[in-house]
Amino acid sequence: MTTAVDYNDLVALLQKQFGKGFTPATDYVEMPAALIAQVAEYMKNTLRFDFFDMVTAVDYSDHFEIVYRLQSIQNNSLASFKIKCSKNTSVPSLANLWLGANFQEREIYDLFGIEFTGHPNLKRIVLWDGFEGHPLCKDFKGKVYDTAN
Amino acid sequence: MTLPTEQFILNIGPLHPSTHGVFRMRVTLDGEIIQDVEPVFGYLHRGLEKLCEKHTYKQNIPLTDRLDYVSAINNNWPYVMAVEQLAGIQVPQRAEYLRVIMGELQRIASHLLAVGSLMNDMGIFYTAFMYMFREREKIIDLLEMVTGQRLLYNYMRFGGVSMDIPTEFLPALASFLKVMPGFLDEYDSMLADNEILLSRTKGIGVLSAEAAINASTSGPMLRGSGVKWDIRKTAPYSVYDKFEFEVPIGSSGDCYDRYRVRMEEMRQSLRIIQQAVVLLPAGNEKQPVPLRLRPAKGETYAQIEAPRGILGCYLVSDGTEKPYRCHFRAPAFINLTVLRNLLIGQKLADAIIIFGSIDLSMGEVDR
Amino acid sequence: MNWSLSPNWPGNFWLRLLIIAVVIIAYVMASVIMFIWMERRVIARFQSRLGPNRAGPFGLLQAFADTIKILTKEDIIPTLADKLLFWIAPAIAFVPTLMIMAVIPLMNGLQLADLNVGVLYIAAISAVSAIGVFLSGMAGNNKYSLVGAIREIAQLISFEIPMVLALSGLVIACGSMSLSSIIDAQNIPFILVQPLGFAIFMVAILAEINRTPFDLVEADSELTCGFNTEYSGMKFALLYLTEYSEAVVGSALITTFFLGGWRGPWLPGILWFIIKMFASFMFILWLRGTLPRLRIDQSMKLAWKGLLPLALINLFIIGLKTVFFPDLSRWISVPAYIVISVIIIMLWAIFMRKERQSFGA
């Protein structure tokens, strides 16, 4: 049975490595955006979380939240992270650590506009190259959405 | 002395008989060897995730059908599971077993299409494809008996399934289960030792286990590389912990192993359906749920083992009757990441075979 | 009964030339129409479906319906295509097939020209048709067609040599290259006397006429029609006709060289010829309905490493027999050679399989 790690233990371990800033919750750990690259590397190489399950973003009106899910196939465990980043900031990319993050980060860039620094090919992926705007943001006013409701 | 040669860029797709939907690959070729691949997709992007935010929870269930239109019942499942987790809805046991039966039938149908299309790409002029579709028609008839639909079923609801099975379903299912293993044996006798098929698929598109895990592949792609990771066993959902079945894995991660994994998974699905029919309890097929459901505020994630990989639904609710954010972790989209690495250095004829063995469904890739 | 045509006709030989030319062209066209019908119905039955059954009884007029449809389509020439080559390539592809039929006897004496270098003529002309295919691929200014055209030339060159060597075995056995004497020498059809030659020739002729498993030239799941992607209208009809008339010619060659041509008891020669031609085409269809296709490098490997050594061995054995055992009784030599061929083919298949496994692909 895939068990989630004990988030309090995980936070203690991470705080020992990287200092303060981690907040545990019931099923995720919240951390500052700047630390994501080092924490990801630590999770992959030391704690053997080798399967990058999912990354997605949510638009709360004044900030974005990026949610990561990592799994460890050897230990059959999962760990979930969240970072908050304000609009118009950029976040370090994890595509060089896990190839599976590549397309998903491009999709977040395409639909939300969050830039991932260090990504090998940050272009639009599901929308065409000349599209203006980022549709999944709550304040997107495209041709379809400002005529309906 | 070497002759000077030029590379040229060939556009495979978007309108092409073998790209399984609208998908475009710009390959840079040097003779027949591929030097670089740029996959271009998004032709089927319908803004599904934005549409989910505009509709109520129940109105989104038919939208989820359109994700992976080849295996539609499985797409309802993670969404329905996520909403049930947030709203605290209990699902009756009969509904769980019905979900399993329909899901596994759909898995067999989806794998038949996947293998049939792969055989078609290899040049068997539709013969294997038509034989597999003959069986897929039988499954679709069974599903039509229950849901009334042939391709996009809209079958699951919060708290169960939308309708109970009619009386003629179980005898029809029993006669299907009796003949299907014979048909699977027929496919194996025709295809599994075919010399030309072996030389077209063995050693082609090899994906090592570490590369597969690193690229977040899942489903038959991951299992074909030898990694025993199946959500139905490692994180059982619904009533899968009550069934006895095996998870077939390949050894070398080439196209042949992926094809064998799909064929074996069909046999295991038949086993699961047989056990589910025996264990099917009486009861309601769904729990009554308010029409305008307002789940508690919060977020959750639910995942299932769809025929193409791990299909997950990340749901954020803000207490109103429409979801705040609904994201689908689409397996075909993430499996596609590894296409570039698999194709470079291969010949053009192999590119189509490798692409067919990844088994995409563009509705999932583009959402 | 002796059904035959005398070689001396009134009106010098021009009348005979004219009439037999018309007969051959009519025969090829009628066979093409029947082959198209057979292909669609028989392969449909393989696939547990019906095939065309609306146009005429049993769908027999489907080819006419298709022809009318193709002829009424617009003839599109791409702007950047090479106009002369584009226009002339289908003709270059089609005419050689008719030229080959000129030397094949449909009945005793029903042959346009009984060349005494018939086999050499056939080997030479059969390559010209592939040049037409290559030109049509090149002229369309389309990368898919170009890839198909390049594959065509590679495959043609590879399989021409085993085909000619297999035919040389026949020539040694008969002592003459003329087709009518090859047929006269077949008291026992050569399929039994030279089974290894038959196997090699069968595979090689499949590759020459671009049928499965060697239809990678027009692989419609990879190249969307290959060399005839850019064609439409009458030119496409001509290329489509070429594909089937090559199948007619291939079946006719197999019939003539290995099945005994028009020879057979009771029925007139032409009926036996038709029966045998259709039987070989049924076999070719059977292969199309069941086998996947080979990749270009695999098909070339088959030609150079598989067929060529076998063809040389075949030639060597036939030469040995002709020089050292010219009077060996048929009752001994035929079964002996069948057994030897089966052993050689099995050994070679084991050798090729070991090679595939060691190289992995």
Reconstruct the topology from this structure:
The complex is a heterotrimer of chains A (149), B (367) and C (361).
Chain A lengths: L2 E2 L2 H12 L4 E2 L4 E3 L4 H10 L5 E10 L2 E10 L4 E10 L3 E3 L8 H12 L2 E3 L32
Parallel strand pairs in A: 1-6, 3-6, 7-8
Antiparallel strand pairs in A: 2-3, 4-5, 5-6
Chain B lengths: L7 E5 L11 E7 L2 E8 L7 H7 L5 H6 L7 H15 L5 H30 L4 H21 L8 E2 L2 E2 L7 H24 L2 H7 L7 H6 L5 H5 L6 H4 L20 H25 L18 E9 L2 E9 L7 E5 L1 H5 L3 H5 L4 H11 L3 H5 L1
Antiparallel strand pairs in B: 1-2, 2-3, 4-5, 6-7, 7-8
Helix pairs in contact in B: 4-5, 4-11, 4-14, 5-6, 6-11, 11-14
Chain C lengths: L13 H33 L15 H10 L11 H19 L16 H22 L3 H32 L4 H6 L5 H4 L1 H14 L24 H26 L10 H22 L5 H29 L5 H30 L2
Helix pairs in contact in C: 1-9, 1-10, 3-4, 3-9, 4-5, 5-8, 5-11, 8-11, 9-10, 11-12
Could you explain how this protein is built, in words?
- Chain A is an alpha/beta fold.
- Chain A has a domain at 3-92: NADH:ubiquinone oxidoreductase Nqo5 subunit (Beta Polymerase, domain 2, 2-Layer Sandwich), CATH 3.30.460.80.
- Helices cover 23% and strands 29% of the residues of chain A.
- The termini of chain A are far apart.
- The relative contact order of chain A is 0.14.
- Chain B has 367 residues and is of the alpha+beta class.
- In chain B, the strands form 3 sheets. A 3-stranded antiparallel sheet of chain B has the order 1-2-3. Chain B has a 3-stranded antiparallel sheet with strand order 6-7-8.
- By secondary structure, chain C is an all-alpha fold.
- Chain C has helices spanning 14-46, 62-71, 83-101, 118-139, 143-174, 179-184, 190-193, 195-208, 233-258, 269-290, 296-324, 330-359.
- In chain C, helix 1 (14-46) packs parallel to helix 10 (269-290) and helix 4 runs antiparallel to helix 5 (143-174).
- Chain C is globular.
- The interface between A and B is medium-sized, with 33 and 36 residues.
Rough outline of chain A:
globular
Cα shape of chain C: globular
Rg of chain A (CA only): 16 Å
End-to-end separation of chain C in angstroms reads: 56 Å
Estimated helix fraction of chain C? 55-70%
CATH C-level label of the domain at 3-92 in chain A:
Alpha Beta
- Oligomer, anyone? heterotrimer
Determine the CATH topology of the domain at 3-92 in chain A. Beta Polymerase, domain 2
Distance between the termini of chain A: 45 Å
Query: How many strands, which pairing sense, and closed or not: the largest β-sheet of chain A?
Result: 6 strands, mixed
DSSP summary: helix tally of chain C: 12
Which range does the strand content of chain A fall in? 25-35%
Q: Largest sheet of chain C, described in full?
A: none
Average predicted local confidence, pLDDT of chain A: 82
